[in-house]
Amino acid sequence: MARRPIIAGNWKMNNTIADGVKLVKELAPLVKDNKTVDIVVCPTATALAGVGEAIKGTNIALGAQNVHWEKSGAYTGEISTDMLKEVGATYCVLGHSERRDYFGETDEGVNKRARAAFAAGITPIICCGESLQIREAGNYINHVVSQVNAALDGFTAAEVAKLVIAYEPIWAIGTGKTATFEQAEEVCKAIREAVEKKFDKNAAEAIRIQYGGSVKPATIKDLMAQPNVDGALVGGAALNAKDFSEIVNF
């Protein structure tokens, strides 16, 4: 089956509201004719509402960078699914390596967040990936597959078919190092096989798998030519409207 590509820009802790609105206003005309790719921007929490307003009527969707699993309560600094829905977010990045490394997020927490987001009608973009140490030790496939299996616990096959997984080798994020196209394909294929083993062939064929890690306009075409790569989670290049549009319009 043909899977619709999804390109998402993770702005991380960059862009004020004004910066974010300016960026999407520059981006919108550059991608307006693209009818074949799902385009997502993921601003900081403070910029979600402003950017959400600015992209109304465009073909750009709004994503958040995190969400809590509870509907409300004493969770200082967290954001609920209702809060995201109120500003128009339809996607949410979860389990990014920076969340795991700097803020102690666990596979179990990622699973709880993913299930809460999905139940609220927000599509999770679930991140997985290995460190350089794990890559060099040679057990990176097992590591990534175990992250994916844990993140997908409690979902049905039909639900999994609607999710997005982003494979991001940690050693390639913001380092300028990019996994080779073969390395990206190898792990994305292993993820798809793991989904088939845990659920079924339909879920495996439908789930969209992105690659992330120093994605640039120069590399996107070859990356998207890989049979198991269905899109990209873009960091640095997503902060520049021209670069991001070239990636979207690959």
In short:
Helices cover 44% and strands 16% of the residues.
What does this entry look like structurally?
- With 250 residues, the chain is an alpha/beta fold.
- It has helices spanning 17-31, 48-54, 81-86, 97-103, 107-119, 132-137, 140-151, 157-160, 181-198, 201-206, 217-224, 241-248; strands at residues 6-10, 38-42, 60-64, 89-94, 123-128, 164-167, 208-212, 231-234.
- The protein has an 8-stranded parallel beta barrel, surrounded by 7 helices.
- The chain is globular, with a radius of gyration of 17 Å.
Number of strands: 8
Question: Which superfamily, in CATH terms, is the homologous superfamily?
Answer: Aldolase class I
Give me the strand/helix succession: EHEHEHEHHEHHHEHHEHEH
* Text of the CATH class: Alpha Beta
Assign the CATH topology. Answer: TIM Barrel
The whole-angstrom Rg is 17 Å
CA-based shape: globular
Specify the number of helices: 12
List the keywords.
single chain; 250 residues; alpha/beta; TIM Barrel
Topology:
Blueprint: E1 6-10, H1 17-31, E2 38-42, H2 48-54, E3 60-64, H3 81-86, E4 89-94, H4 97-103, H5 107-119, E5 123-128, H6 132-137, H7 140-151, H8 157-160, E6 164-167, H9 181-198, H10 201-206, E7 208-212, H11 217-224, E8 231-234, H12 241-248
Parallel strand pairs: 1-2, 1-8, 2-3, 3-4, 4-5, 5-6, 6-7, 7-8
